[in-house]
Amino acid sequence: MKKKIIEQELNFKAVRSGGAGGQHVNKVSSKVVLSWNCQKSVGITEEEKVLLLERLKNRINKDGILILETDTTRSQVKNKELVINKLFDLIAKSLKVDKVRKETKVPKSVINKRKETKVKMSLKKALRKRVL
């Protein structure tokens, strides 16, 4: 993954942010919408594209465009930085290959200990009964 190339491929759009606010909120476009075409991107390899399309299939539309948006702060510049960081975190998280879980066998000592405690508990409960 080449961040510099991907940053050049990004498209930004400033939109008016929703929610509560004063008179100023109706005039300022502080929400930033980022769109990135990951299918046509040159910043990632073909294997990475396959991984991204598979793992982010619910976030990527049918044209292969990933859309992210942020309206956390009141500053458009800060929101732009935040949405870029959000994109790279999302890419890094989805490209991370999980370790294969290696199944382990339960040790015999653990099995024997469990059986011994079962025998002790049953003996303890048997001793509580009334003798006829």
UniProtKB/TrEMBL annotation:
PROSITE patterns (UniProt xref): RF_PROK_I (PS00745)
EC number: 3.1.1.29
GO terms under biological process: rescue of stalled ribosome
GO MF, any single term: peptidyl-tRNA hydrolase activity
Keyword Hydrolase: yes
Domain of life (superkingdom): Bacteria
Enzyme class: hydrolase
Domain Prokaryotic-type class I peptide chain release factors as annotated: residue spans: 16-32
InterPro entries named in the record: Pep_chain_release_fac_I (IPR000352)
Keywords: Hydrolase
Record-given protein name: Aminoacyl-tRNA hydrolase
Organism expressing this protein natively: Myroides pelagicus
